[in-house]
Amino acid sequence: MKKTLFTLTTAVVLGLSSLYAYAADPIVIKFSHVVAPDTPKGKAAEKFKQLAEEKTKGAVKVEVFPNSTLYKDKEEMEALQMGAVQMLAPSLAKFGPLGVKEFEAFDLPYIFRNYDDLHKVTQGEVGAGLLAKLEAKGVKGLAYWDNGFKIMSANKPLKTPDDFKGLKMRIQSSKVLEAEMRALGANPQVLPFSETYQALQTGVVDGTENPPSNLYTQKMHEVQKNASLTNHGYLGYAVIANKAFWDKLPEDVRKSLDEALKESTDYANQIAKEENDKALEAVKASGKTEVYQPTEDEIKAFQKALAPVHAEMADRIGKDLLTSIYAATGFDPAK
Ligand code: LMR
């Protein structure tokens, strides 16, 4: 009681706008992620750090660990649940192992025609409902950050679905992505992001899929002779926190962090497309990868080959959820 009174009096005397500004030890948020700093997620994490520290006047310190330097894909989820890190932004394809399979809806081939379709889901009720499902796992879902649409790569031209037959393709840990690769006649191999470059380089896998920004910043293009602009699926993130940690934050700190999140989310979603466009140009300019733009008919052949994945995965993802996604975007690929 005495201490509270003292702090309060001191704060008033010093004219501090908030009590937490006077806290001696900052609250530390360890924010771990697996991509390079110069990617949409890497930049947004740095933006969040800067805004969070500014808005809490130093009462919060955010330590960002990029490039799997702290934890790899699977470990980071476990670390968050145990409280060893406080925040993450895993790809939406990585929530299955946590037991929230519904996020794999975002992996369905050609489910979004563009970022507008995507935002109708991530910025609407369906997206909010999905984030709420994380609470039962001790995880607080805070926001969605965009990345982009995926391209395919390998060491051979990938013009039609037939070109994928028998290829070993690295995927993220999503059953939908597994079904997608199988629908193309490829052999999917789940590997952590941090091991993908080496697996491609040594021939453990033949190819992969990712938005251009990830391909380029991990130098995967240096070990992939061909890329194909299939734009067959989306890759983006949910920003999440350890729920017990988040719920225990002082009210004014949480409010400032919510503001920092909102602003860094706007920033992430503003830069995502441009970052991917720039990365694609850099891949082309490197001269190491031949980038192929499939014709309209070839894209139609991919759409046709991949369409059955929606029905095949409907039970896993939830038919109602799928229907509400199609309703939100106004687009059902099967129709
Ligand atoms: C991947 O594993 O390919 C991506 O999830 C990496 C990322 O976080 O963008």
Any key phrases for this structure?
single chain; 335 residues; alpha/beta; six-stranded mixed β-sheet; five-stranded mixed β-sheet; 13 helices; 11 strands; 45% helix; disordered N terminus; binds (2S)-2-hydroxybutanedioic acid
List the helices and strands and how they pair.
Elements: H1 2-14, E1 27-32, H2 40-55, E2 60-65, H3 73-82, E3 87-88, H4 115-122, H5 125-132, E4 139-149, E5 151-154, E6 168-171, H6 175-183, E7 187-190, H7 196-202, E8 207-210, H8 212-217, E9 226-228, E10 234-242, H9 243-248, H10 251-286, E11 290-292, H11 296-306, H12 308-317, H13 319-329
Parallel strand pairs: 1-2, 1-3, 6-7, 6-8, 9-11
Antiparallel strand pairs: 3-10, 4-10, 5-8, 5-9
The structure holds (2S)-2-hydroxybutanedioic acid (LMR).
(2S)-2-hydroxybutanedioic acid is lined by residues 34-35, 91, 147, 172, 193, 210, 214, 235.
